[in-house]
Specification:
Blueprint lengths: L2 E5 L11 E3 L10 E5 L2 E5 L8 E7 L8 E9 L6 E9 L2 E7 L3 E8 L2 E8 L7 E7 L2 E7 L6 E7 L9 E8 L9 E10 L5 E4 L4 E6 L24 E6 L10 E6 L4 E9 L9 E7 L2 E2 L7 E3 L5 E4 L4 E3 L4 E8 L9 E9 L1
Antiparallel strand pairs: 1-15, 2-5, 3-4, 4-15, 5-14, 6-11, 6-15, 7-8, 7-14, 8-9, 9-10, 11-12, 12-13, 16-19, 17-18, 18-27, 19-26, 20-24, 20-25, 20-27, 21-22, 21-23, 21-26
C-alpha cells in the first residue's frame, strides 16, 4: 500500500508543503501547534470559554477510494478537552475518531448529522487509529502497535464523496477547561491499496485475470517493512479456458509468484460438474512442493462442480512460485472453464 502522504514529525518543523495549521472547525490560533521532540504537540487553551481548536489539515486533497489513513495518538488532551483525527470534505462531512479522557468515538458526520459508536478509551490498545475505505463503505480500526488491527466499526456509508478529502488532526476545548494538557500525535500516513500480480499462462490456454479487493482489511500491517510494499493485499481470481478440449493430463493449471510475504488463507475452485465416480483432485504447490495432503486437497467428487478450503495458513514469502496443479482426473476429463480464487493475507 504505497503512501500518498506520510509524516513522522521527526524534523521538528511543520512541513508547510504537506500541512496547513488549521482545525476542522472552531479554529483559534491561540491553541499552539508545534513539532517538538520528534512529535506533533497541540496545547489547547486553558480556562477559555466556547469552542477553540487548532491542529493540522493536509494542504492537498486525496482520493481515498480503496484507501486508508493512519494516525498514532501518543497522548490525548485531558480533563474534558477533545482530541480528533480523520478525513473530511468540510466541517459538516467527515469520518474519524474523537477522543476524550474516557471515551473513544468512531464518528461519521454527514450533512451536519452525527452517527457515533463509542467505547471506553484505552491509551495502550488504542495507540494507533485507522480508517479504511472499501467498496462504498468506511471501516474504523484500532491497534496497540500498528501491526495487529481490530475492526471496531465497519460497513458505514460516508454519504459524501471521498475522492477529494483532506486529512486532519487537531485538539481543543468546547468550554472552559482549567488544565487541558496536550495532545500528541506521531506517524501519520494516508495511502491507497497497491494491487499487483504476476501470473504465467500455461501453454495451450487463453484466459484473463481479475483482481478483487476483499471487503475486509488485512489485520497484520507492517508499517516499517519495505517502504510499505510488503503490505500489498491481493485476491487474484484466475479463469483458464482450454477451448473445446478437456484437461486430460496431470499438469499445472495456474502459476504465479507471491507479490508479498504473508499467508494463503483460502482457496476456492469452480469447474464444469464432475459426472464420473472418480474424483478430480487438485493441489497447491509452493516452489514445486505440494502443500496440501489427503482430505485437505481440493477434491471435486461426482456430482460436484466446486470445492473450497478455508482456514488455511500456508506461509508464502515474497517471490515464492505458487502453482495450482491437477493430481487426479476422472476418465471423462475436466470440462472448462476452471475458475480459481486464492485469498492471501499479508503481514
Amino acid at each position: 500500500m504505497p503512501a500518498i502522504l506520510t509524516d513522522n514529525f521527526n524534523d521538528n518543523v511543520i512541513d508547510t508543503a504537506k500541512w496547513d495549521v488549521a482545525a476542522l472547525d472552531n479554529f483559534n490560533a491561540g491553541v499552539t501547534v508545534v513539532e517538538t521532540g520528534d512529535q506533533l504537540v497541540i496545547t489547547p487553551l486553558a480556562s477559555t470559554a466556547s469552542s477553540n481548536f487548532n491542529g493540522l489539515t493536509s494542504d492537498a486533497t486525496f482520493n481515498i477510494t480503496q484507501g486508508f489513513a493512519i494516525w498514532k495518538l501518543e497522548q490525548m488532551a485531558i480533563n474534558g478537552a477533545v482530541t480528533r483525527c480523520g478525513v473530511f470534505l468540510d466541517a459538516n462531512n467527515w469520518v474519524g475518531f474523537q477522543v476524550t479522557p474516557s471515551v473513544l468515538t468512531f464518528r461519521k458526520r454527514a450533512s451536519s448529522t452525527d452517527s457515533n459508536t463509542t467505547t471506553i478509551y484505552d491509551s495502550t490498545n488504542h495507540k494507533y487509529l485507522m480508517l479504511h475505505h472499501c467498496g462504498a463503505r468506511v471501516n474504523w480500526y484500532i491497534s496497540p502497535n500498528g501491526l495487529t488491527w481490530t475492526a471496531w466499526r465497519t460497513g458505514v456509508e460516508p454519504e459524501f464523496t471521498v475522492t477529494e478529502v483532506k486529512l486532519f488532526l487537531d485538539a481543543g476545548t468546547t468550554g472552559s477547561v482549567a488544565t487541558p494538557g496536550t495532545a500528541i500525535f506521531d506517524d501519520v500516513e494516508i495511502g491507497t491499496l497497491d494491487i499487483e500480480a504476476a501470473f504465467e499462462l500455461q501453454a495451450g490456454f487463453s484466459g484473463y485475470v481479475d483482481l478483487i479487493i476483499d471487503p475486509g482489511f488485512p489485520l497484520n500491517i507492517d508499517l516499517t517493512g519495505g517502504g510499505g510494499e510488503t503490505n500489498i493485499f491481493t485476491i487474484p481470481t484466475q479463469r483458464r479456458y482450454s477451448g473445446s478440449r478437456v484437461f486430460a493430463a496431470v499438469s499445472n493449471l495456474l502459476s504465479w509468484r507471491q507479490e508479498a510475504t504473508g499467508s494463503i488463507i483460502s482457496i476456492d475452485l469452480w469447474c464444469q460438474q464432475n459426472t464420473h465416480a472418480t474424483s478430480a483432485i487438485f493441489n497447491l504447490r509452493k516452489n514445486g512442493e505440494s502443500v496440501l495432503a489427503g482430505a485437505s486437497r481440493l477434491i471435486v467428487p461426482n456430482g460436484s462442480a466446486s470445492v473450497s478450503r478455508s482456514g488455511l495458513s500456508i506461509a508464502a514469502e515474497l517471490g515464492d512460485q505458487i502453482d495450482l496443479s491437477i493430481e487426479q482426473i476422472p476418465p471423462t476429463g475436466i470440462g472448462t472453464p476452471i475458475t480459481v480464487l486464492v485469498r492471501t493475507q499479508v503481514g
